[in-house]
């Protein structure tokens, strides 16, 4: 789906930002106006214009908050959080030390936290114990009654953030009586930025402590804890579910069987052979050329090096080989919904591989271009996607 830009990456990320409008994360006019001032494939103008929009909308939120206009403040702060995240997206030369990247990501967090305090439903900030430290999270509650309710644990992906969880799942969940426990794990959001913890393939080591924590909360029904994986989270949660028996259901948006294969599929054969043989110097010269001419490749390899703790593009690609469900998928026991996207430019063909490997009760649903749901993670079709996810969860929950 081409959206306002010819550059595929710019198009997708703009659609992602705009797609959250249905839950107050964007204003379509603001998105279109901002995009009109950005030069295609120019990361400098992308940063400049999205930051300008974010700061302008942030100022509206701050002014309304100071005047006690709660709803107006919340709406503006939610949009500002999404716009700050979008502005910072391509700052991947040295994100751990880049002061601009740190400032914008912090502003995205801060504006969301301020908006969360103004929401009509309770939003609790939580710290989840994990291997001698804690993982930051939000617990989105239906109400403050303390009544145990079905709860979905949200695991984000390769570049998504804790704050994005509200638009990507929680808003739709709360409207239907489901609660959401979302967190940043290793390699994600505040955890990679503030603690330097990188991704790990054995995601059960992350999810098991999260489930342990969830079961201590009186507002969460321990018999109805589901797991939802978003983007790369589609692999991470599937891997975790294979070793975590306390889950009532699993949703993969989208299904991802082999993260390494998703990379290799779009690379020249000679390049993968060089990487496998350890010819990193030669391989990195080629990837450097690819990065120079393609926005998506440039961003993905830089983000991968940072979040995987790799020292070069070749090293990052090699590290992805551990992220596979081969020999693992058949261990998943809970009912599983696999989502697929007809035009998924990142994980094309991976969801059917997951579905085929599963031996548990399963269902697969494909979002199509015709219905506007054919992009990765069904960007631009949040309402339709949530209808499908929660109708399925309703059936599983009611039967259980």
From TrEMBL:
UniProt entry keywords in alphabetical sequence: Hydrolase
Alphabetized GO MF terms: hydrolase activity
UniProt xrefs under InterPro entries: AB_hydrolase_fold, FrsA-like, FrsA_esterase
Record-annotated membrane-spanning stretches: none
Keyword Hydrolase: yes
Superkingdom, natural source: Bacteria
Pfam families cross-referenced by the UniProt entry: FrsA-like
Family: Belongs to the AB hydrolase superfamily.
Name of the protein described by the UniProt record: Alpha/beta fold hydrolase
